[in-house]
Structures are given as C-alpha cells and as structure tokens.
Amino acid sequence: MSGQTDDHAALAFRVRGVRHSFGQTEALRGIDLDVGRGEVLAVTGPSGSGKSTLLHVMAGVFPPDEGSIEYEGADITGLDEAERSDLRLRSFGFVFQFGQLLSDLSAIDNVTIPLLLAGWRRKSALVKARDALEELDVADHRDKRPGELSGGQAQRVAVARALVTEPAALFADEPTGSLDTLAAEKTMDSLLDLVRSRGTTMVIVTHDPRIASYADREAIVRDGAVSFGGGVGNAEGVGNVG
Ligand SMILES: Nc1ncnc2c1ncn2[C@@H]1O[C@H](COP(=O)(O)OP(=O)(O)O)[C@@H](O)[C@H]1O
Ligand SMILES: [Mg+2]
Question: Which residues contact 121 (CB under 8 A, 6 or more apart)?
Fold first, then answer.
C-alpha cells in the first residue's frame, strides 16, 4: 500500500480499475492511479505499453471499457460525447508531439481559436493570445504561419494554445518528442514555469528521463499496468492503491 489518500479534496484525478481494449489488444489492464491537484505526473514506459491510451481515457477523449475515472470528485466515465467534449474545452488543455497547429493560420490566430470556441470576443481573445505567446517567448513570431517557425518555436506556440484558456489540467503526450535537447529544455522550462505558477495539474507522457525529471512523480506503465518509480517530490498522499 503506497499512499492511497483519503483526502479526496486534494485529488484532481482518481482512476480505478480502468481497462481498455482495441479489438484483441488489451491496452489497459486494470489501472489505479491518483493525481493530486496541482501535481505534475510523468507517465513513462516502453512504446506500446498503454501511455497514450491512459492519457486519452483520463482526459475524456473516449471512455474506458471498464473502471472509473473521477475528475474533481465527479465520475466522468458515464458522460456522453457532448459532455466529455464540453469538459475538455472548459477544463483541459492538450499538447501533442507535433502537427497540432493549423498550417494556414498565423501563430496568433492558432492561439486565439480555443478562446473563440470558449465564447471570447475576438478583440479580447487577441490580447489574451498575445500575452500567452509572450509567456512562451514567441510573441515576435505571432504573424508567422507554423511552416515559417522552427520546431521549438512551433511547439511553444502549441503550448501557448493549450494554456491560453488557463485549463485546470494539462495533458501532454511526448510534447518535446520532435525537438532537439536545447529546444526541448527551453519549451519545458517555460511550460513548467507557467504550470507551477498557476497550480495546473499536469500529466505528461514521455520516454525521455530528462523530461520526466521535471515532474513531481513518475508512473511507469508496462503492459497496460502502472507501477511507481523512485518518484520525486510530492509522492506522499497520492499514489497507487498497491
Ligand atoms: N486506435 C487504436 N487501434 C488499435 N490499437 C491501438 C489503438 N491505439 C493504441 N492501440 C494499441 O494499444 C496498445 C497501447 O498503445 P498506446 O497507448 O498508444 O501505447 P504508448 O502510448 O505507450 O506507446 C498498443 O498495442 C497499440 O498498438
Ligand atoms: Mg503513445
């Protein structure tokens, strides 16, 4: 028993008995996982072990076959597609390895989109988007299209887009996987500054130990099940149920 908490108030995510298959492939075979509010959790493990599937079911992209996921004390497993979509838009941000910026739009227009979807007026959305680009140190490139940016700049625009709505939780899947070490570190430094200062809960999937070292704690996924690494920081009180 390592650190199951009774303090549900401090939990952002509570995952219990989650199983999910794609056809004959059992991607998740009974996942139990807690993520504290404001915690940064790294999810590591071999390719094909179920990391992305875990991230998707936690973020309400699709429901698992079995088990439950609570977000902020409410079961999200039974939500229908429209309700999950609404939850994602209202509460979650996403960063992926690449290919998430719209190539025909400028950097600032890309960052403005989530705000417009959330009902912001264009003028205030542009101001907010520009602030977000500044926080990621790419405001100078706001009028460029993704194809005119370096990989690292484009990824920082993508981070600005994910964080511009100030989501309570951020899901990142190999967010620096396409970048060289220096660009990856610069992106992670800006991202973590922002996430820590806002108290954002973050789940970051990575195979890179240097990226995992930014997290408070590490959950290792093998064959669709979670174990815990020698974890850092905040491990007391949030953990697996053994
Ligand atoms: N959409 C899908 N259709 C069929 N199989 C899938 C799908 N997504 C993932 N899988 C399979 O589920 C397993 C876990 O995949 P994934 O969660 O993407 O692993 P990871 O992110 O750790 O590399 C793998 O065997 C993978 O091939
Ligand atoms: Mg993956």
Answer: none
Span from the CA of 158 to the centroid of ligand 1 (angstroms): 24
pLDDT of residue 3: 43
Q: Can you give the residue ranges of every domain in the chain?
A: 40-55+80-228
- Please state, in angstroms and as integers, the Cα–Cα distance from residue 57 to each residue in 52, 76, 206, following that order: 9, 10, 17
Just give the CATH number of 40-55+80-228: 3.40.50.300
Band (pLDDT 50/70/90 cuts) for residue 195 is very high
CA 94 to ligand 2 centroid distance, Å: 14
pLDDT of residue 232 exceeding 70: no
Contact 175/136 with Cβ under 8 angstroms?
no
The answer on pLDDT for 99 being more than 80 is: no
Q: Which atom of ligand 1 is nearest to the CA of 205?
A: 21
Q: For residue 99, how far is its CA from the centre of ligand 2 (angstroms)?
A: 15
Contact 220, 206 (CB under 8 A): no
